[in-house]
Amino acid sequence: MLSQNMTDKIIDYIMSHGGDFAEVFAEHTRRNQLAMTGGNMSEALAGIESGVGIRIFSGDQCAYFYTEDEREENLFRLLKENWKAGEPVRPDWEKLSADQKIYDSTTEYFQSASVKDKMKLMEKCDKAGLAYSSQISQMYLKYLDMDQHVQIANSEGCYMEDHRMKTRLSIEAVVRDDQDVQRSYYGPGAMGGYEFLKQINVEECARKVAQNAIRCLGARACPTGRMPVIIANGFGGLFFHEACGHSLEATSVSDNGSEFSGKLGTKVASEKVTLIDDGSIRDGWGSGYIDDEGELTRKNVLIKDGILKNYLVDRLNGKKLGLSANGSSRRESYRFAPVARMSNTYIAPGSDDVEKMIASVDRGIYVKSINAGSVNSITGEFNFNTGETFLIEHGEITVPVHSATLIGTGGDILQKVEQVGKDYELGQGFCYAGSGAIYIGAGQPTVKVSEMTVGGDEIC
């Protein structure tokens, strides 16, 4: 990591040679990952990443470059090679006093847990899942942790440090009979150290995953066409993360590259929809105390009762939009320039009863989990592949069906949200975009969409 004297030198050089804004981002990160297959350790990885990224605004231009070599002579060589500095036009630029803050809430560092301790935890899951039923043929376990220390300084008086720790255990069960093979998955994670895994019953989690996999055995062909879709609570919220969340990031909005560009204050969704992104949730998988521009994270209400209230805004795109940055700038590491990205994004709880919601559907599907999806933020067109999926017939969930493809546009689907339950839950995952792979939370209560295009494999 850099001394404050060094970050001051870099910023002074940039600002006195024609820069309008200067930022230094330094990082030191440790990562560990273990995987277990069939009760045997199949992977053990550990790594350290350390480096510095420098960002400069000059007029309408933005320059970003990075290095692993933190020596002073290398940093200034990098500056001079990658940025065409002007003459010292502002040698006496007014430097703002730095407000230095350091954040760290971790109570037990995961380094205090040995590899043997982590393996024992995974073995517990493996045995619990296999013991649930003889139909469980395989358990896959993955443990990961990250210890990231970042330092952010800029020409507007920011000098911040954040210590971010993430811990996660992923559990997958495979079940098979003579005619079918099914899988189920659960991956609890949090911002915190090894203490997080002591707060949950990992064996019960493994049994639940095994039970869910068995429920999907004998899945039938999935129907095709326009029909009601009910999306379960928890990580089903990934649907809205993809369907409309990316289109609300300033990186899309600022160049009129989003279906929501220029629509602040207008009705873009059903009045049932309140969409929130909150990077300040305590222990949240997508949380941090500051974002990657040094702004305090916060709760940003994006859509309130169907009305578009806000975007996720980073510093650069905020300048284009005339909006202030709102703690939403993120990056995978020092190798990436920060941009507006989601953190923990969710549909706020409503007041509808889930049983009545299901009872209102004559024929449709119930989606327990979403595997993956993609969206065109300009048009809002999306498609998603479902995981555990069930048929709803005459107001009841009846049989499992094969995974389906959900097709539509974000703006259309938001208007068709008909009911929102009270059973809010937040799940954990990763998001891959322009500034790299980042930790995200996605959540919701159970939600009913009145009509959506479902691509199934049923032959009519």
Automatic annotation (TrEMBL):
<dbReference type="Pfam" id="PF19290">
    <property type="entry name" value="PmbA_TldD_2nd"/>
</dbReference>
<dbReference type="GO" id="GO:0005829">
    <property type="term" value="C:cytosol"/>
</dbReference>
<keyword id="KW-0482">Metalloprotease</keyword>
<feature type="domain" description="Metalloprotease TldD/E C-terminal">
    <location>
        <begin position="224"/>
        <end position="456"/>
    </location>
</feature>
<keyword id="KW-0378">Hydrolase</keyword>
<dbReference type="InterPro" id="IPR045569">
    <property type="entry name" value="Metalloprtase-TldD/E_C"/>
</dbReference>
<dbReference type="InterPro" id="IPR025502">
    <property type="entry name" value="TldD"/>
</dbReference>
<feature type="domain" description="Metalloprotease TldD/E N-terminal">
    <location>
        <begin position="22"/>
        <end position="81"/>
    </location>
</feature>
<protein>
    <submittedName>
        <fullName>Protease TldD</fullName>
    </submittedName>
</protein>
<dbReference type="InterPro" id="IPR051463">
    <property type="entry name" value="Peptidase_U62_metallo"/>
</dbReference>
<dbReference type="Pfam" id="PF01523">
    <property type="entry name" value="PmbA_TldD_1st"/>
</dbReference>
<dbReference type="InterPro" id="IPR002510">
    <property type="entry name" value="Metalloprtase-TldD/E_N"/>
</dbReference>
<dbReference type="InterPro" id="IPR036059">
    <property type="entry name" value="TldD/PmbA_sf"/>
</dbReference>
<keyword id="KW-0645">Protease</keyword>
<comment type="similarity">
    <text>Belongs to the peptidase U62 family.</text>
</comment>
<dbReference type="GO" id="GO:0006508">
    <property type="term" value="P:proteolysis"/>
</dbReference>
<dbReference type="GO" id="GO:0008237">
    <property type="term" value="F:metallopeptidase activity"/>
</dbReference>
<dbReference type="InterPro" id="IPR035068">
    <property type="entry name" value="TldD/PmbA_N"/>
</dbReference>
<feature type="domain" description="Metalloprotease TldD/E central">
    <location>
        <begin position="110"/>
        <end position="217"/>
    </location>
</feature>
<dbReference type="Pfam" id="PF19289">
    <property type="entry name" value="PmbA_TldD_3rd"/>
</dbReference>
<dbReference type="InterPro" id="IPR045570">
    <property type="entry name" value="Metalloprtase-TldD/E_cen_dom"/>
</dbReference>
